[in-house]
Every structure is written in structure tokens, then in C-alpha cells.
Amino acid sequence: MFNRTVKNDDIDINQDVNELADSLEALLKSYGSDAKDEVDSARSQAEKLLKQTRSKLDGGSNRVTQVARDAGAQVDTYVHDKPWHGVGIGAAFGIVVGVLLASRR
What we know:
The chain contains 3 helices and no strands.
């Protein structure tokens, strides 16, 4: 009924977060050293990775929105093709909610 597409975006984000953590760890270790070049290099690399990771995470909300829209479109098509099934599902949902609300009293 619903088609799911598997993407490697989750794996990419996990890899980016791991790289960011490694970079930040190197930055913290470099604060113990006296070499200013090493500290500046680690800081610039950490800032660059942080910006990249944030941009990818911000783009993730767009993917979630698109998946929700696609699911909604598929449900809409299903209900238009089989309206009595939609009525039955809606009635069953209403009965379940009614029973749950009545049992709370």
C-alpha cells in the first residue's frame, strides 16, 4: 500500500556527527598544547564541520515534511478510490476513541 524508499541520509548524518565529535575532541586536546597553529587549525576544522552538520540537519526537516506530504497524498488517493473503506476506518477509529474516553470516567 505504501512504498518506502530507503535512503543513506541517516548514515551520512551519523558519520558527520562522528566526524564533528572527533574534530571537537582534537580541539580540546590541542588546548593542552602550546602550539597556536595547531589550536587554530583544529578550531577552524571544528567550525567548518559544525556548519556542515547543521546545514544537513536543517535539511532533514524538509525531508520529513516531504515524506508526510507523500503519505498524505497516498491516503487521499486510497480514500478516493475506495470511499467506503475510508468511512469504515473512520467509524472504527471513532468507536475506539469513544470507548477509550468513556472508560476514563
